[in-house]
Amino acid sequence: MLKIAHLDLPPLQGAAGTLRLPGSKSISNRLLLLAALAEGETRIEHLLEADDTAVMLDALRALGCAWHRNADGSLTVQGLGGHLPVSQADCFLGNAGTAMRPLAAALALLAARDGGHYVLRGVPRMHERPIRDLVDALRELGCRIEDLGQPGYPPLALRGPASLQLNQPVRVRGDVSSQFLTALLLTLPLVAQQDVVIEVEGELISKPYIEITLALLDRFGVRVQREAWRRFTIPAGSRLRSPGRLQVEGDASAASYFIALGALAATEAPLVIEGIGRNALQGDVRFADAAAAMGAQIEWRDHALAVRRGRWPLRGIELDCVAIPDAAMTLAVMALFADSPTRLTGIASWRVKETDRIAAMATELRKLGATVQEGADWLEVHPLRAEDWRTAAIHTYDDHRMAMCFSLAALHPLAGATPQALRILDPGCVAKTFPDYFETLFDLVQARSEDIPVLCIDGPTASGKGTLTERVAERLGYHVLESGALYRATALAARAAGIAWTDEARVASMARSLALHFSGGRCYLEDEDITDALRAEEIGLGASAVAALPAVRAALHELQLSFRRVPGLVADGRDMGTAIFPAAPLKVFLTASAEKRAERRYKQLISKGFSANMEGLLRDLEARDLQDKTRSSSPLVPAQDAFLLDNSDLSIDASVEQVLQWWAQKQAFPA
Ligand SMILES: Nc1ncnc2c1ncn2[C@@H]1O[C@H](COP(=O)(O)OP(=O)(O)OP(=O)(O)O)[C@@H](O)[C@H]1O
Ligand SMILES: Nc1ccn([C@@H]2O[C@H](COP(=O)(O)O)[C@@H](O)[C@H]2O)c(=O)n1
Predict the structure, then answer these.
(1) Residues lining ligand 1, Cβ inside 6 A
(2) What was the ipTM of the complex prediction?
(3) Please, which residues bridge with residue 18 across strands?
(4) Which of 23, 174, 314, 354 fits as disulfide partner to 248, beta carbons 3.0 to 4.6 Å?
(5) CA atoms of 425 and 396, how far apart (whole Å)
(6) Is Kinase set as a keyword in this record (predicted)?
(7) What pairing do the DSSP bridges indicate for beta strands 67-69 and 516-519?
(8) Any binding-site annotation on 466?
(9) Domains of the chain by range and CATH?
C-alpha cells in the first residue's frame, strides 16, 4: 500500500493481463454484522481487507464478538446469538458508512431491548454525513438516541432500556441513502417477536443495494417479504442463523476502474477481471452495461469479465445512475475519451458521500482542461480534444474513488494528447476499500520505457546509496534497482559453481541465466534466500572483480533495464547514470570520505552481529574504489550531468530531502 504524499503516474499507453478483485465492501460489512449477530459460527472467505472492514471488525470486538483469521486468509466469526456480552462500548468507525448505519440500528435496538450505553463516532467527515432519517425511524420505534454533536449527524449515543413499539410500521426515507433501510432490515430480525413492517417514504434509491441486503438475510435464514419497493415485512419469529461458510464476491464498484481500463486501453487482448461475473449480487456490476454503451466490448463469464476496447473514441451517453452511484464516478472520467458529451443524472447522493463528489469531480476534471457543467443531482462532462489535455495534480478529498477513477486520466496519450505525468495527491486514501489498487494497476498497464522516470544514485561503496535509494523510492512509490546485488549474486553463483571470478566467458554465461528474484525486501537465487550471503565483504570484492569484465556487464544490461516499470524507478550502483539509464532525468553522485564510509560499514556489520576490523575495512574499501574507478568498462565516475552530494557530514534524512528537492525541481504540477 502506498503511504505517500503524492504519486506521479507516467503517461500510459495500454493495458493487458488478469487481476483478482478485492472482496466487495458492501457484502463484507453486511456479512460481518450478520455473522456477529447470528447464532453459530460463520467462516467468511475472501473478505475485503481494508480500512472500512477494519473499523467494523474493531467495533465488533469492542462489542464482545470474537473473531479470528484462519491460515487460509478466511475469517471466522463467533456469532453472539443476538445478545451483546458488553453493556458499554465506544466505537470509532472512521468514514465507513457501511459500518455506521447498521451498527447504529443494531445498538439502538439491542440497548432498548436489553439495556446498555454505546457510542458511535468517526472521522470529521463522518460527522458531516447525515443519519437523521435512520435516527428518526429508530426513535419512532422507541429507541433512545442522543446526538453528541450536530443533530442528525454522528457521533451518536445509543441508550437503553426503552420500550419498543413494533405494532405500527416503521417509516424510513429511501431517497437520501439506501443504507438507512438496509440498517433496519439487517437488525430488526433481532426484535421480531411479531411481524415487523418497514415502509419506505420517497423514491427508494440504490435498489440493488437493498437486493444485496435481502439476499444476505436469506442466507442467514430471514425471508423478508417485499411489496414493490415500498413495504417490507420481517416475519414474526425471524432469527439470524449462520449458514456456516460464505464467500464474498469481488467488489463490483472496484471492477469499474478495470472495466474502464479495458475499454480504454486493452487493444491487443482483453483485460480479465476475476471475482465477479454473470450472477453477481452487486448492482454496480451493471456499470459494465454503461461501459458497453460507451463502446467497451465485454464478455460475461461465470466468475469473471473480459473487457477490451470496442468503439473508439468512446461514445458519450446520458444515463440515470441512481442504481450505480459509486461506479458512476468512473463514467465521468471515461467521458473525457468520448466523441460527444456524457450526462450523468440521479447522482444527488454523491453530495453526501466521502466528499461532495459532484463538486470534487467537476473541479478536478476542469483541472485537466475539461468543460463540465453540474447541478444538484447531475453532471455533464464534455470530451477533451487532444490539444486541450493538461497535466494536473489531482486532489482526492480523502475519497478513495476520486483517486482510483482519476488514475485513468493517465491514459491521455490514447486520446492523442501529449504524454505527461499526472499527479494523484494522497493516493493512500484508496486504503478505504482497495489498499493495493495502485500496485494492481501497475501490474496491468504499459508505458513507453522513455516515459517511466528513473532517478540514478551512483557512488562508491558504503556511501549510503542503498539507504538513500530505498528511502527516496518509498517517498515516491517507485521501484528499486540495487544493481550491486546483481554483480554480487553473479560472484556468489560463480563461486558456488566453482568458476573463477576471472573466467570472463563462464561468469558472463552464468550472469545471463541468473534465476534471481526480489520479494519483500529479500533476494532469492532459484528458491534460496541469498540476501545475507550477498552482503559478505568477500562477496563484495568478488562482485567488484566480476564487474570489471565487459562480458559480464553486457550480460547484466538487459536485466537492469527490465527494472524500469510503472510508476518509476530509483536505481543505485556505479554506472546507472553513465551507462544503463544515460537519459535519466535526475542523476546523483553520492560520496563520502573513505574514513566515514569505513566507519559506517563497520557499524553496519557490528549491528548485524558480524565481526569487523576498521583498518581491514578501510583497506578493502579503498581497493574496491580503485578497481571500480580504473576498470575499462563503465568505470565509477559521475555522469556529466550528475548532481554531486557529499554526505560525509549530512544525515540520511537530510540527504533524502536534498534528492527529493532536486527531483521536485524537475516536475511541473500546477496546484
Ligand atoms: N548520510 C549518512 N550518515 C550516516 N550513515 C549513513 C548515511 N547514509 C547511509 N548510512 C549508513 O551507512 C551504511 C552503509 O549504507 P548503504 O548500505 O546504504 O551504502 P551503499 O553505498 O549502498 O553500500 P554498497 O555499495 O556497499 O552496497 C548503512 O549502515 C547506512 O545506514
Ligand atoms: N552498477 C554497478 C553496481 C555494482 N557494481 C560492482 O559491484 C560491486 C558491489 O556493489 P555494491 O553496490 O553492492 O557494493 C561494486 O563494488 C562494483 O564493483 C558495478 O560495477 N556496477
Answers:
(1) 461-467, 484, 600-601, 604, 647, 650-652, 655
(2) 0.98
(3) 272
(4) 23
(5) 6
(6) yes
(7) unpaired
(8) yes
(9) 6-22+249-448 (3.65.10.10), 26-247 (3.65.10.10), 452-665 (3.40.50.300)
